[in-house]
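Entry type: protein chain
Record version: 2
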Amino acid sequence: MLRSARLPNILQIKAGDLNNVLKAKSPYIVLCNCNNINERNVNTLANQLLFDNELEAFEARKKLLAKKEYITSRFLIKTIISHHFNISYHTIRLCFNHNLKKLQAIVNNQPLPISISLAHSKGMVFFVINEENVLLGVDVEYQDSNRDITAVSESYFHPSETKSLTKNDHARFYQLWTLKESLAKATGQSIFELLGQNTIQIIKNFHYQLGLHDGFQCAILQNRKVLPSSGYLLNLENALLHYAE
């Protein structure tokens, strides 16, 4: 069962700054709210922090919030990678490899030996950076207490999962949902392939953690090594000072 009191690995999210993350070393676990980016600053930040293919991807996003999430994720991930490998921020390009179905950090046309998994929900950006040979997937979802979880679970979830849900058990529903999304990213499968499968049985071969912060359910799943018990909630404005330095 995924009742909160019985979780084997609970992820704590604590406030910190970028220096806390950099000192923590790999794996890096980060949550950041980008809703407070001023609309007037979005394009300026994009031109400062994004390059080449990243700017093209930024421009392709029509919704303002999606643009904010894109800037935030690329800036933070590249800043951490530049520190980890002791290389210049400006040499790093983040590209999604559609064949491998994962985000890669590219330097001099070669992927760096790391695994990256990224998710976002309503302006909350969540990502983990870990070793190259780790199958890694993360997800973050806002827990909508008005969502008809019974209808969704009956339409998409495995029968045993649906049976385990009560009408108002939104916490368990979002735990299951984020684990399914994380599993899909870790294994390179479509979420539609995994929705109807018994996720709890499948993830017995993985390490996973679940954490809740300010109504957002976070999940991390990987195929080996237990992750740290905590991640950091960053203030984007303070993090940007690191770039200015």
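Comment: The CA atoms of residues 238 and 244 lie 10 Å apart.
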